[in-house]
Every structure is written in C-alpha cells, then in structure tokens.
Amino acid sequence: PMAAAPPPPPPPPPEEKRWIFTAGGFYGYNFRDNTGGQSQLGGINLGLDYKVTSWMTVGLEQAGFYHFDTKNDGFGGRTVAGPDFYFGNLLSDDLPVAPYIGGNIGYLYGSGIDDAGIAGPEIGLKLGMFDMKVAYDMPFNRSPDHGIINTTIGVSFDF
Description:
Layout: E1 19-30, E2 39-53, E3 56-68, E4 74-86, E5 97-110, E6 116-127, E7 130-139, E8 148-158
Antiparallel strand pairs: 1-2, 1-8, 2-3, 3-4, 4-5, 5-6, 6-7, 7-8
C-alpha cells in the first residue's frame, strides 16, 4: 500500500503592518509670537511612524501652516521627531482604540516666528483609522509658558 501524502504546510502568517502614515488638519495657538502678542497657526500635518513594538512607535511629523492674527502674517513649518507610547496593542485589530502619550523634538520656523528648536509632550488617541492629538511645543528661545499648543485631527493608514 502507498503511504498517505503529508498534509500541506500551514499558510504563513500575514505580514505585520509596521508603518503608519497620518494626514490631517493642523491648528496651533501661539502664546507669544515674535512681536510679543498671541497668534494662531492653521494648516496641514503629515506624519510617518514606525511600530517598534506593539506599544511604541517612533516617527517624524511635518506641518505646513499659515501664521495669522499677528503683525507678521505668513507661512511657516514645524518639523519634529519622537516616540509615542500606546495604551493598547497597535499590532492587533482587536483593539481599534489606542490612547497614547509621547514627546517631540524638532524645529519651528516661518513668518512672525523667531525660528527655534522646540521640544515638548504630546497626547493622542488613535480610534480606528482616525488620529487626534494635542502637543505643547516649548521653543528653546522662550520661557516654557510661552509655547504653542498644537492640535491635529486626521486619518491614519497602516502599511
């Protein structure tokens, strides 16, 4: 008699999606512009994050905005990098809600802004494909209470 053929090998597990691309609206409130007043920023924010673990990402963000409500209106940007720590498993589809905390370090530049390095904390919430976050940037050339509150609401795509 002939031996039975061995069963076929199981299919390989699906490849983990380790990258997250985000795009969204950007709004910032500047507690002190270069003329000593308060001003606002409005534009878009793009981000690219790499999932280091199921609970941590490291990423880059680039905002382009129009700085307004100041004596020197004009265009500017915010370029930052930093880690985010998630309270939820990012590599699982079982939990579509993942709050996070993190930090940023980078550079802020543009019309009506004393170009400077920046650093500060960030909190956010990833809800399915939606991503919402609030960050506080402290420019190195100002006191910590003269920073900028930044908000982004957008969508994220895992790949």
